[in-house]
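Support request, please re-run this one:
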Amino acid sequence: MNIQTERLENHTARFTVEVESSRLDNAKQVAARRLSKQVNIPGFRKGKAPYRVLVNYLGEGAILEDAIEVLGNEVYKESLDQSEVEPYGPGALENFEIEPTPKFTFIVPLQPTVDLANYRSVRLEYDPPKVEDEDVNRALRMLQEQHAVIEESQKPVAVGNRVTIDIHSFIVDAEQPESEEHEEFIHQHDMMVMLSDDPKREFAPGFNQALEGAAVGDSREFELTYPDDEEEYGEMAGQRVKFEVMVKKIETMTLPALNDDFAARVTEGEEQPLTLLELRIRVRENLQNAAESRYKSEYAMKALDSMVEQAIIGFPEALVEDQTERMVQQFDSNLRQQGLTLEDYLKISGKTRQEIAAEYREPAIRVIRRSLVLRSVSDAEQVNISEERINTQIETILSQFGERSDNFRPLFDQPAMRDSVRDDLLEQQVIERIIAIAKGEAPEPVSAAEPEASKEATEEGESS
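Re-run finished. Output below.
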């Protein structure tokens, strides 16, 4: 058997394999015996008809087609064994020639490859946000609202009311003809909205003013444009939205006084109820922890994306197709949680499944590039998770079930569940290492030649 391997630009390889004619003849005999068991030939029992009779009855082409499949599978496996190619998934038969000698041509998707380049040179300023007094005041105001006296009102809508509305809204594309349907923004019935006097809590910029003066049963149509501030409004920055709103209920809210009695009422279930000052301190700490956690996550993604940008990454189209399909299936799962299916969505939107998959193609590529670099950084940095660390994490998870923890313990004894816990811990650890690299604080990778105890010591030091 003669094998020629050619690596192609789309991260696939082409095997051109010549085999002896005798192997094809043998494969035709095997194919004939297999086919003879599937057909009734007059004068012969199933599986007993001679080869020449089968050829006359089924035709040479039918036997040859089956023989190519049988022999092709054998040849493909042998080619993989003899080559240095690492396939990502199953190969495909691109061509077959019978003359002058049998020749198979296979296209094989290759395992992804990553060259991280100088990933350790990535540096980003680390400046987590500070919680301000107005943030604490805003959080306390929301606590007051949760404990407010609420009364239904027949007066027109005013700022400070809570309203129940049906809302239908669309993102208006100035370049899109009015006759065409615009992209849906929010569509919800019996939606409860607090018309706060705090601009940062307004449902949409100008929304309160647009509803002021409306009575129960009134409908309002209006357009609002989000400020061109991407940091504040994200992907909605600069977007124009058309709203159709019907007011179904108006409620007034009488807030409790913000004092020690209020703080004690909010924390009455605790061993020692808090004073207002203590409540303010706790709220500030919670807000600060949440803000730092969000910032840390965003910082890690920016650092990872910087590493992705400079890395040289190769992967086959088959990987993109697999990741896209997973994302489409996740979309279907999310729809089912809302009482719909993907088929329902396709009918409503007028799109095909192929069009939905095409929309997920670029997001899928971003996910692939990030995950490949993340895995490569893990390998390069010699990040490891010890069995002891896995056991500790499992105990932490089980403790959340209280007295029922023993009922769930057998679940975590299963290898698949332990592997899942390991993967989660490994990803957390790699993210922490990426943050340390970007801050210029990462230790040098642990050499594979160093003792295992040294590896675990480094791991525990990072997690502390």
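The chain has four domains: 2-111, 124-147+258-304, 149-254, 305-463. The mean pLDDT is 89.
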